[in-house]
Fold this sequence. Notes:
Low-confidence stretches: 129-133
Strand content: 15-25%
Largest sheet: 5 strands, parallel
Oligomer: single chain
CATH architecture: 3-Layer(aba) Sandwich
Number of helices: 5
CATH topology: Rossmann fold
Mean pLDDT: 87
Number of domains: 1
Helix content: 40-55%
Amino acid sequence: MRVALAGGGTAGHIEPALSLADALRRVDPSTEILCLGTERGLETRLVPMRGYELGLIPAVPLPRKLTPQLLTVPGKLAGALSAAGEHLDRLQADVLVGFGGYVATPGYLAARAGASRSSCTRPTPSRGWPTGSGRG
C-alpha cells in the first residue's frame, strides 16, 4: 500500500501523522509512506528524523479577515494543489490521510482530483475549515 500523510506546521498536526506512519509500518513494513508538509513547519525536522520521506508544497495561509491578501489565495492554492498532485502521482498514492495545517487542504483537493485515490481526515472535536474539507 502507498500512503500519503498531510499534516504540518505544529507537532499537534505532525505527531499524529507520524504515529499512524509508524503503526502502518509495524503492520506491513513494505508500506510506502510520503509525508506532505511545507518548508516552514516543524515537519522539515521531525519527518526526516523518523525516517520518512517529506514532500514539500507551498503553504497556503487563509486570512481570517477580509483583506487584500485574500485575493492571493486562489493563485497560491493552485500552486500548492499542483505540487501536492505531483507528489501523490509520483508515489501513486492509494490514500491520503490529513491531519491539519496549511498542507491539509491542498492535499485533500489533490487526492480527490486523482482517479484512484481517496482522502480522509482524523476526527477532531472542533475542526477548522481545512480539516473539514477532507470529509465527504
